[in-house]
């Protein structure tokens, strides 16, 4: 496999992971916290409605989970393409 083909595969995998992560975060923060908030207002979580919870806490927690997911997946991609740090 040529180096250019390997680089393209590495960056393709990287961009796919980033794109998926950004779509999930946008759906949770903008979708659940703003657009779908009226639909989620009847569901109680911790003394408030679910839409407010997503706007205040849920998007932050999902963002933290995405950071750990990205680090885990990129370590795997790095190993597959021979650019890992270990």
UniProtKB/TrEMBL annotation:
<keyword id="KW-0812">Transmembrane</keyword>
<dbReference type="Pfam" id="PF13937">
    <property type="entry name" value="DUF4212"/>
</dbReference>
<dbReference type="InterPro" id="IPR019886">
    <property type="entry name" value="Na_symporter_ssu"/>
</dbReference>
<keyword id="KW-1133">Transmembrane helix</keyword>
<protein>
    <submittedName>
        <fullName>Putative solute:sodium symporter small subunit</fullName>
    </submittedName>
</protein>
<feature type="transmembrane region" description="Helical">
    <location>
        <begin position="20"/>
        <end position="40"/>
    </location>
</feature>
<feature type="transmembrane region" description="Helical">
    <location>
        <begin position="52"/>
        <end position="72"/>
    </location>
</feature>
<feature type="domain" description="Sodium symporter small subunit">
    <location>
        <begin position="8"/>
        <end position="84"/>
    </location>
</feature>
<keyword id="KW-0472">Membrane</keyword>
